[in-house]
Design brief:
Blueprint lengths: L1 E5 L8 E5 L11 E9 L2 H7 L9 E2 L4 E8 L11 E3 L15 H6 L12 H13 L6 E6 L3 H10 L5 E5 L1
Length: 167
């Protein structure tokens, strides 16, 4: 299967499309997702530009959206065809939230900075956006084969909104 990887020592010129081994069928409690799009975040940029040490051949991008292709044994929350997004801390299912997201959005609060919470926090946030019919501002969409150009655009600071990559 195809993946976009980073060759050592890193840097935008070392981003390449590669063939990687198929991960196989999902195991117990796992799902397999066909990624359709990603959006760039600052951590991804640091990794791609070699500001954060990483292994040779690292698969890039941590934020993804797609559809469930297959579910493993015991999975009841998802079904093939479900639309899903990745979560930053998949092993942090719930916990204290510093900001009640729904209340803040209902009051049209401006939220800035890095916001990463538990899986439940993310689910509440997505539900709030759906209820408000809010849509993200997308600055530009790149093909996955132009990932280096997408990172260069992010690095320029000239964007307003999300920089997305389509698969």
């Amino acid at each position: 299967m195809k993946a976009i990887t980073l060759k050592a020592p890193g840097g935008l010129v070392n981003i390449a499309e590669a063939e990687v081994a198929d991960p196989g069928r999902p195991g117990k409690g796992e799902i397999r997702v066909a990624i359709k799009a990603s959006s760039l975040n600052y951590h991804d940029l640091l990794v791609a530009c070699a500001a954060v040490p990483t292994e040779d051949g690292r698969i890039l991008l941590s934020d993804g959206a797609g559809t469930v292709a297959e579910v493993g044994e015991g999975v009841t929350e998802f079904r093939p065809g479900d639309h899903v997004v990745s979560t930053f801390f998949p092993v942090w299912p719930a916990g204290p939230a510093n900001l009640p997201i729904l209340l803040a959005l209902a009051r049209h609060a401006r939220i800035e900075g890095l916001i990463v919470g538990s899986r439940r926090d993310q689910q509440d946030f997505v539900r709030a956006l759906e209820l408000m019919e809010a849509r993200p501002i997308i600055d530009q969409v790149f093909s996955y084969t132009d990932l280096a150009a997408a990172f260069a655009h992010q690095q320029s600071g000239q964007h307003f909104g999300k920089i997305c990559v389509e698969w």
